[in-house]
Amino acid sequence: MARTLSILVDGRLLEVPEGITVAAALLNAGESAFRDSVSGKPRGPVCGMGICFECRVTIDGAPGRRACLERVSPGMRVTTRE
Amino acid sequence: MSRLRNVSADVVVIGGGPAGIAAASRASEAGKRVLVLDEAPHLGGQIWRHLHRESLPAKARDWLDRLDRSGAEGLTETSVVDLRPGEVLGVRWNEEIRVRAPRVIMATGARELFLPFPGWTLPNVMGVGGVQALAKSGASVAGKRVALAGAGPLVLPVAAALAKAGARLVAVADRTPASRILRFSASLAGRPADLWQGVRYRAAFSGTRYRWGTWVVSAAGEDRVREVTFTGGGRTWTEPVDILGAAAGLIPNTELARLAGCEVTNGVVVVDRMQRTSRVDVWCAGEPTGVGGVDLAVSEGEVAGLDAAGQSVPAGLLTVRDAGRAYARRLDEAFRLDPVGLPPPETIVCRCEDVPCSAFDKGWTMRQAKLYTRAGMGPCQGRVCGAALHAMFGWAPDSVRSPLVPTPVASLISTLESSDATA
Fold it and tell me: What pLDDT was estimated at residue B127?
């Protein structure tokens, strides 16, 4: 089994396998909506490869990070729908 | 604040998928100092995306091992934002990377063509390759009801992989008419390995019908997609789903080539027999020269890597590459996109700026669409809606500007300052 690590998603502690992306961790935790669109509609990952920018979240205070391109790391703080 | 890192190489390869890996290996084996830049956490690109190398097919493992042995360096999680004479600018978190290199090989791959339909903006509506990419990145699809609607040869391997990962495939569709798929399949008699591969993929999801000439009418749900309505074969029906993967095939990523001033015609980067672009210091390999799949990408990468390193290219390699190119033309013909109708007027087309279809006038150009509606002005810079608008209205893409991906302002400032300082 893969080793796990802990991340904090919107204040919720998640135990996730090492090496997976932030997008995968959020989807596995049942989070489908990663951001709100300019007219306030929920959006989630589409392309899975960094093209569409629909999966952007705030990671450790940095806004607009593409969750599909970032690996989880111990103690990472992720905020969705900001 | 952001830091600037200066590096240099003889050859810089942009994109670490099969074409980039093959190009970098060949150039590095020829004694050149090679640097590969890629946005993802691992080299491999989309088709060879992985969490653990052991999980990859033998060919992928062999090339990744060969790249390691070649001594080429890889820099992942790095987005290329500009390409100037003799230097490539990248951003990695809050660090800017300036690569001075006299030769550039572009291997920027392809992306999916997303065609808008009502509900396509709902969470859990993704691309066909999108679902696959997320699954390869660790997202679990086990027990999930997944529907796929695609166009072309990507549908089969994705369906097979998702079935193997425990997904419940409730629908698998291709918008291409059955007559063209049958004609293409018959032509595979001369390529038994591909035919056999297709049969194996199909067997992996034998419990689900594979419907041709079928496409999505709409997706519905509140918080996320809950059901999808399909039409095809003379009927229209609705399936409950957890995830929908929908995309109308692959299109080459040519933004970097266009920014660099390389000739791009009919959506593909123009190259000669040695994969040279119209710019003497830039080569291009893989999907940007025309979507053709992994084997063609590897052989094009090998040719580009050898030529950029000043080596002669063996005739046998060129023959393999040319055969791959001929096959790619047949694929292209078989799965070409039929004229695309417009979705209902209220359907969002530009997802970044939430611009509905009704906002566009078919008499416009892409530039006018941008100015009047802000379509294509958001973070994706038209990578999604630009291709959709091209398919819907026939508009040619607007010009490309740097930075190629949204960049923190601080990064740009320090790059400009340092350029001035050394000017």
Answer: 98
Domain ranges of chain B: 3-110+251-334, 116-247, 338-403
Q: A41 and B121 in contact by Cβ < 8 A?
A: yes
Q: Among A24, A53, A64, select the one facing B137 at the smallest CB separation.
A: A24
C-alpha A14/C-alpha B138 separation (Å) is: 14
**Interface ipTM > 0.85:** yes
Condensed to tens digits (0 to 9), the pLDDT of residues B303-342 reads 999 999 999 999 999 999 999 999 999 999 999 999 999 9
Chain A contacts to B (CB-CB under 8 A) = 2, 17, 19-21, 23-25, 27-28, 32-34, 37-39, 41-54, 56, 62, 64, 68-71
Gap from B19 CA to chain A (nearest CA, Å): 17
Mean pLDDT of chain B: 94
The CATH code of the domain that includes A28 is: 3.10.20.440
Number of domains in chain A: 1
Please give the distance of CA B193 from its chain centroid, rounded to a whole number: 24
Measured between CA atoms, the residue of chain B closest to residue A21 is: B137
Whether B3-110+251-334 shares its CATH topology with B116-247 is answered: yes
Architecture of domain B116-247: 3-Layer(bba) Sandwich (3.50)
Contacts of A36 in chain B (CB under 8 A): none
Q: Which has the minimum average pLDDT: B223-227, B325-329, B377-381, B413-417?
A: B413-417
Distance, in Å, from the CA atom of B423 to the CA atom of B417, rounded to the nearest integer, reads 10
Short-list B324, B327, B279, B278, CA closest to B302: B324
Q: What is the structure's pLDDT at B93?
A: 85
d(CA B58, CA B397): 38
Percent of chain B topping pLDDT 70: 96
HSE-CB for A12 with a 13 A CA cutoff:
11
**d(CA A33, nearest CA chain B) in Å:** 6
Residue ranges of alpha helices (H) inside B218-349 are 255-259, 294-308, 315-334
Q: What per-residue confidence (pLDDT) applies to B422? A: 42
Residue B380 distance to chain A (closest CA, Å)? 5
The mean pLDDT value for B369-386 works out to 95
Q: Say if domain B3-110+251-334 classifies as CATH 3.50.50.60.
A: yes
What's the pLDDT score for residue B412?
63
